[in-house]
Amino acid sequence: MSTKPTSSNKFKIIIIIITVIIIVFLLYKVIFSDIIKRWKFLKQQTNSLQKELNYLQEENVKLKAPTGNQSNEEYLEKESRLSLGMKKEGETVVVLKQNTTTTTTRTKQEQNNLSISINRIIDFFRSWFH
User: Fold this and answer.
1) Which residues touch 70 (CB under 8 Å, ≥6 apart)?
2) Which residues contact 72 (CB under 8 A, 6 or more apart)?
3) Among positive and negative, which fits the CA dihedral 45, 46, 47, 48?
């Protein structure tokens, strides 16, 4: 017995195939669209951070290089003398003292008055909240 597909059976099969394709497409859009958007965003962020890293590495190299026409030896000598407070022959070192400020001390009577005032304030709040 051989059964030939009728036109209505062919139509049903086409409808089922189209329905499956539509369902697969919708699932793809719902599930994978967010993942793809997230991946693109992360890729852009990675590229941006890589550019920033490259820029900062170049700046680091520039900052580590000696300035102007000074050789490494001259630069190291200058920095060593400045940080250690040493001088070259023929140089004069000038040391500046920092200004210090003095504060006046309170007398015992002032300290007692202050303590009494603080205790009164504390007692007021204790009575208020208890």
Assistant:
1) 78
2) 66
3) positive
Token pair of 73 as six digits: 């030896």
Q: What is the mean pLDDT of each run of 10 residues along the chain (130 residues)?
A: 70 94 87 84 94 91 69 74 75 69 68 79 72
Amino acid at 9: N
- Distance from C-alpha of 108 to C-alpha of 99, rounded to nearest angstrom: 28
| Tokens 């250690």 belong to residue | 84
Handedness of CA 32, 37, 41, 43 (dihedral sign): positive
- Whether the full predicted model's pTM is greater than 0.70, yes or no, is no
Q: Please, where are the H alpha helices in the chain?
A: 7-64, 72-84, 108-129
